[in-house]
Design brief:
CATH class: Alpha Beta
Radius of gyration: 15 Å
Number of domains: 1
Largest sheet: 4 strands, mixed
Oligomer: single chain
Number of helices: 5
Number of strands: 6
Mean pLDDT: 96
Strand order of the largest sheet: 4-3-5-6
Length: 182
């Protein structure tokens, strides 16, 4: 059975990084953008990292420019932005695509292993996200495509997707799921 450990990604420096280096540790994977309405989530994600890194949690970010061109700069610029503006200390990797024919194979695996559960029509934030996707990225509205920046995948110590969190998921929910893995 495939795991995230079967994939190699690229650091902002251009160096290849095999994800098997995270074997045995829970990982939170997030696609990011510096000009997104959800960019403020860097604060909460960094707090999760600070709180749980000593218990083994790894968080890795992948800048993506597929949603309304909200990450127009280079990978290094995206990494620098996160560090300067949000004090991000968890690893940020090179920009990649998460959807379509040019999607990184890691994201194809993540979407297949953690399919989209649908928009919670009872949640106003989820409704607003759905409207934004329909307006700005309608090609990603249906199916298991990543809907927007700051979609998160929680991976267990065996490299399997435990849960997918949409950008509007409450941070308390993500924190509780992390605690269950630790």
């Amino acid at each position: 059975m495939p795991t995230i450990y079967d994939f190699t990604v690229t650091r902002t420096s251009g160096e290849r990084f095999p994800l098997y280096q995270y074997e045995g540790k829970p990982v939170l994977i997030v696609n990011t953008a510096s000009k997104c309405k959800y960019t403020h989530q860097f604060d909460d994600i960094q707090k999760l990292y600070d709180e749980y890194k000593d218990q083994g949690l790894q968080i890795i970010g992948f800048p993506c420019n597929q949603f309304a061109e909200q990450e127009p700069g280079s990978s290094a610029e995206a990494e620098s932005f996160c560090q300067i503006n949000y004090g991000v200390k968890f690893p940020m990797f090179a920009k990649l695509d998460v959807n379509g024919e040019t999607a990184h194979p890691l994201y194809d695996f993540l979407k297949k292993s953690g399919p989209f559960a649908g928009f919670d029509e009872s949640d106003i934030q989820a409704k607003l996200l759905k409207l934004m996707v329909a307006d700005k990225a309608p090609e990603w509205l249906h199916g298991d495509a990543i809907k927007w920046n700051f979609t998160k995948f929680l991976i267990d110590a065996e490299g399997q997707v435990v849960r997918r969190f949409e950008p509007v998921a409450p941070m308390d929910e993500i924190k509780a799921s992390i605690q269950e893995l630790l």
